[in-house]
């Protein structure tokens, strides 16, 4: 009897899940989905009816939000898919280190120093140019499933 009491341990950390279930038929274009363990943004959804007794199937084409790779999946529309919790947070850029890490100012006045510069060349050159000119820059950090990456940039003025 005591053996059976320990089967319900949670694998989530601090009670927060990285994903939540959502019925495949309700996921739309520009929504998010987990394909092959990667958080993705849906760029195309098509639904097909399969025969007299089969389920309708949803064909998802999605782009990984961190590395830009295209992934596809086919799921029965009545089944649940994992959907990642995707958050965007804005931080002020304080410094860029020699090894490509950025130092960001958090809302509570602390610093966040564990993020690298983005791999997107256009965004990277905008950040470096603005920083070199001494502008006050706000970077948007997208986070999902334990990963974070700089995905946007705003110039809030500064030295001209």
From TrEMBL:
Cross-referenced InterPro entries: IF5A-like, IF5A-like_N, IF5A_C, NA-bd_OB-fold, Rib_uL2_dom2, Trans_elong_IF5A_hypusine_site, Translation_prot_SH3-like_sf
Name of the featured protein: Eukaryotic translation initiation factor 5A
SMART domains the UniProt entry points to: eIF-5a
Segments traversing the membrane: none
UniProt family annotation: Belongs to the eIF-5A family.
Molecular function in Gene Ontology: ribosome binding; RNA binding; translation elongation factor activity; translation initiation factor activity
Occurrences of domain Translation initiation factor 5A C-terminal (ranges): 85-154
Post-translational modifications: eIF-5A seems to be the only eukaryotic protein to have a hypusine residue which is a post-translational modification of a lysine by the addition of a butylamino group.
Keywords, in A-Z order: Hypusine, Initiation factor, Protein biosynthesis
CDD domains: S1_eIF5A (cd04468)
Basic and acidic residues composition-biased segments: 1-12
């Amino acid at each position: 009897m005591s053996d059976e009491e320990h089967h319900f341990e949670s694998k989530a950390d601090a009670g927060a899940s990285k994903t939540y279930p959502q019925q495949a038929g309700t996921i739309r274009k520009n929504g998010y989905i987990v394909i092959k363990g990667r958080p993705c943004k849906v760029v195309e959804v098509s639904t097909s009816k399969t025969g007299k007794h089969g389920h309708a199937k949803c064909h998802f084409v999605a782009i990984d939000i961190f590395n830009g790779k295209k992934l596809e999946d086919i799921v029965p529309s009545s089944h649940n898919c994992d959907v990642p919790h995707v958050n965007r947070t804005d931080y002020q850029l304080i410094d860029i280190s020699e090894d490509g890490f950025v130092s960001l100012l958090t809302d509570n006045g602390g610093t966040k120093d564990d993020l690298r510069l983005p791999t997107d060349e256009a965004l990277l050159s905008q950040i470096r140019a603005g920083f070199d000119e001494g502008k006050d820059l706000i970077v948007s950090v997208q986070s999902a499933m334990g990963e974070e990456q700089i995905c946007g940039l705003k110039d809030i003025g500064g030295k001209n």
